[in-house]
């Protein structure tokens, strides 16, 4: 989230967001701040805090291009890139209105079946940038994401991977049998910056929880354009101190 | 006197009684309650709760749910929608000029799991003649591989069963206080109806379990819901 706030302060524009497999507060902030041209996602919502208000308004007014996905199609497209193959098949989805707008999806005959067996082929997606927050980075440039393996997938698939971390730790986590399964190798990592409590108001498991009251505050404020602008003034335009422990 | 949520949970529990493994989404406290009730009744049901706040059923990231379902390792799933129609198509994308969050995993899960369609609001706004956008289709042509699909539609007023051969719902029962005529008035699509019963009220034993072990189990992940229904 610190990186998202920094993107808004730098007045990023024309961004094309890919939800893996869904998007939330980060996307709603970027959309409201005018940074986004396209949203590719299975859903955009604030989870328990409700609908994503800036996304909803931008969608209803046709201000951004939206390409709707279904969750496993995003995973499949990125897994194809991980493997360096042009596409991968996925069951289901056929007959959904999600299919026709996708030039990067095809319904084709399963070449191994004797009888008719249509199956969806999903073209590989190569994101320009993977951007996420993680708990640790080490001296070797590895990043620990634990069981959030979709972060490893996007790091493997993207051309560049930039990570903010809670803490730097000494040594090489790949030498530690307990930590290694949750590590993304430095091979995939383009840049790392420290951002303590950088996920706020979202959480990092076992470090700090989601700030539900702040999410509720945002959901309410962002219902109107004016409320959203005020939110940006309070929490984004000025270098924030509010998320640091009191 | 059973609460509406308790009646719905007992109905859903009966519908999924033979399941071995059920996945339940974040905004689904009533389906989660149905699963906990089955467990409290001693059934060896595995319940995979998505988006748990602490802990998480997966170690391979969020794709693991779809990999599990794709293999047929999840028997039942629950889906709702901004709109549902008489052919069991569901719409999670847009309706009446409003944009909704999106289709999530529905276009895959509906093909993979036996699915209980669940939406408490029972109105012509939700139950429409034809959805404006098909996030996931209610049925597929015979050549399309499809293990799962609709089993039933449960609303705040009634229980419909899905007739796969006719591609049409049948009104199975109306909840206490509702009438078949009232249900028809509130439903925007056509369906079959014969020998409509009343949804059975929870038994004293079911209520005892719901208000004891089930309420405690649900409170951890759905605190607001548990407070509203049981305190």
Keywords for this entry:
heterodimer; A: 246 residues; alpha/beta; Glutaconate Coenzyme A-transferase; five-stranded mixed beta sheet; 7 helices; 11 strands; globular; B: 231 residues; 2 domains; six-stranded mixed beta sheet; three-stranded mixed beta sheet
Describe this structure in words.
- The complex is a heterodimer of chains A (246) and B (231).
- With 246 residues, chain A is of the alpha/beta class.
- Among the domains of chain A are: 100 residues, 3-Layer(aba) Sandwich (Glutaconate Coenzyme A-transferase); 52 residues, no CATH class.
- Helices cover 28% and strands 23% of the residues of chain A.
- Chain A is built from 7 helices and 11 strands.
- In chain A, the strands form 3 sheets. Chain A has a 5-stranded mixed sheet. A 3-stranded parallel sheet of chain A has the order 1-2-3, covered by helices on one side. A 3-stranded antiparallel sheet of chain A has the order 4-6-5, covered by helices on one side.
- In chain A, helix 2 packs across helix 3 and helix 4 crosses helix 5.
- Chain A is globular.
- By secondary structure, chain B is an alpha/beta fold.
- Chain B has 2 domains: 102 residues, no CATH class; 106 residues, 3-Layer(aba) Sandwich (Glutaconate Coenzyme A-transferase).
- Chain B is 30% helix and 24% strand.
- Chain B is built from 7 helices and 13 strands.
- In chain B, the strands form 4 sheets. A 6-stranded mixed sheet of chain B has the order 3-8-10-11-12-13.
- In chain B, strand 10 and strand 11 form a beta hairpin.
- At the A-B interface, helix 3, helix 4 and helix 5 of A face helix 3, strand 7 and helix 4 of B.
